[in-house]
Amino acid sequence: MTLFCIFGNPVSHSKSPLMHNSAFKAFGIKSCYTRYSLNDGNRLKEKFFELKLKGANITVPYKEEAYKACDEIRGIASKIGAVNTIVENNGKLIGYNTDASGFLESIKNFEFKNALILGAGGTAKAIAEIFNEKNIEFAILNRSEKRLDTFKKKGYKCYSWEKFEIKHFDLIINTTSAGLDNNSLPLKEDILVKLFESAKYAVDVIYAKNTPFLALAKKLGLTAKDGEDMLLYQGVLAFEIFTDFKYDKKDISKYMRSGLKSL
Questions:
Q1: Residue 149 belongs to a domain with what CATH number?
Q2: Radius of gyration of the chain from its Cα atoms, rounded to whole angstroms
Q3: What is the structure's pLDDT at 263?
Q4: Are 208 and 130 in a shared domain?
Q5: Whole-number pLDDT of residue 262
Q6: Which pLDDT score, from 0 to 100, does residue 148 have?
């Protein structure tokens, strides 16, 4: 039996095992997918081989460490600089990023002209890269200036909290961990309220929780959604990679969604 897992911290909330194990079972694949709470991102590669994994997903806060741990990077991950899917091939780690396409698929019904991304981590990098690829206007807003260097080098519009002037954005996206295991907001409430007052949509990549970010967006009348659809779609793409693209994407999606709804 081959073993897969998701690395992160925290990771106990993750629904990825439900999705992947549901699909493994439906296809009759002798594999198991579990969780692993990693305390040090620099030990990701070591733990991967210690656990004798065939593949893994990576969540907050280790997507950039995962990129560094890989022997080879494929696809859009090379532009993003962050990896959320890894497979072992002949003793080497091959890294991919399925967050970018997964996020875009999750908002396919939204009609928007521009977006503001809150945060500057691996997920923010993935969304920024796919938006740039699709010629969608966007900006990144992060608490500190230093974390924005990577975005600035690519010519993206970036603001730290201190230098941000409120502008209109149709879509506001929270990619930070604010609200994941606490009741914090990703941005000062007065500024977030003003942004929401002129926006149409709000997305939090955190799922299975009505975060303060989402609660505030709903209160102000925005169309708001959590990250469950993104989780599903990026998971489908990761499953394809794990199984060498042997299975139909529609079937994978069906079985994974069934797993998500099993609780």
A1: 3.40.50.720
A2: 18
A3: 63
A4: yes
A5: 80
A6: 97
Q: How many CB atoms lie within 10 A of CB 80?
A: 26
Residue 103, token pair as written in the block: 């996020």
DSSP 147: G
Do 211 and 244 have their domain in common? no
User: In angstroms, rounded to a whole number, what is the distance separating the alpha carbons of residues 66 and 106?
Assistant: 24
| Catalytic residue IDs | 63
Enter the DSSP assignment of 162: G
Distance of CA 152 to the CA centre of its chain: 21
Say if residue 60 is in the same domain as residue 85.
Answer: yes
The residue range of the domain holding 245 is 2-97+228-260
Q: What average pLDDT values come out for the chain (263 residues) when binned by 10 residues?
A: 96 95 98 97 97 96 96 97 97 97 97 97 96 97 94 97 94 95 93 97 95 98 97 98 97 96 77
Amino acid at 122: G
* Angstrom distance (rounded) from CA 164 to CA 236: 36
Do 131 and 71 belong to one domain? no
Same domain (yes/no): 214, 136: yes
Do 118 and 219 belong to one domain? yes
Give the total number of structural domains in the chain.
2
Q: What is the rounded distance in angstroms from the CA atom of residue 155 to the CA atom of residue 162?
A: 20
Both 144 and 221 in a single domain? yes
- Identity (one letter) of the amino acid at 57? N
User: Which residue spans within the chain are E strands per DSSP?
Assistant: 2-8, 31-37, 55-58, 72-73, 85-89, 92-96, 114-118, 137-142, 157-160, 171-174, 201-204, 223-225
